[in-house]
Write a structure and sequence with these properties.
This protein is mainly alpha-helical. It is built from seven helices and two strands; from the N terminus they run H-H-H-H-E-H-H-H-E. 62% of the residues lie in helices and 6% in strands. The radius of gyration is 25 Å and the shape is elongated. Keywords: Cell membrane, Membrane, Transmembrane, Transmembrane helix.
């Protein structure tokens, strides 16, 4: 072996030869069923409180200035619902949490532990279930099935399976 071969093996300017593996992303501990239930109830209470606050003020104002009760209904229920959806979407995009999940210190992630995008959360996890629930007879049964699936060993609901997400402790 000559000196040139030896220098090639010990070149100080060569890139490191040590293999580096990507760090695994941990999903965290799955959130308990009770925490998930309370978070859902808190979300419903927050929507109800916002609807009551904006709805009462908006409906009274709309009825005072316009005789159209449809406008009062839109202002009373549509505006608070849209405000709530925008707030929840902002929280989901920013932190993977809704108001209720933030209060219960849990969040939604992908099953590999990575952050779930807002598109995934809305387009795969939320909107399809809402649309199915609008179908008479089938909708309530689908909602019941979705919620009962939390009692599987994985603790994931049907909407979690569809979106490849899970709820973990934050």
């Amino acid at each position: 072996m000559d000196d040139t071969d030896n220098r090639a093996k010990h070149n100080p300017f060569a890139p490191p030869a040590t293999p580096v593996e990507d760090a695994a992303v941990e999903a965290g501990d799955p959130a308990g069923r009770g925490a998930r239930l309370i978070a859902t109830l808190l979300d419903a209470l927050a929507l109800g409180a916002l609807t009551l606050a904006v709805g009462l003020f908006g409906s009274v104002t709309a009825l005072r200035f316009a005789a159209a009760s449809a406008m009062a209904y839109v202002v009373g229920f549509g505006v608070p619902f849209l405000l709530f959806i925008v707030l929840q979407a902002w929280l989901l995009k920013r932190r993977g949490q809704t108001l209720g999940k933030a209060a219960m210190q849990i969040r939604i992630v992908r099953t590999d532990g990575s952050r779930a995008s807002l598109t995934r959360l809305l387009a795969l996890r939320t909107i399809p279930m809402w649309l199915v629930m609008l179908v008479p007879v089938v909708g309530p049964l689908a909602a019941l099935l979705d919620n009962l699936m939390i009692f599987r060993p994985s603790g994931r609901c049907l909407h979690d399976d569809v979106a490849d997400t899970m709820v973990v402790c934050a």
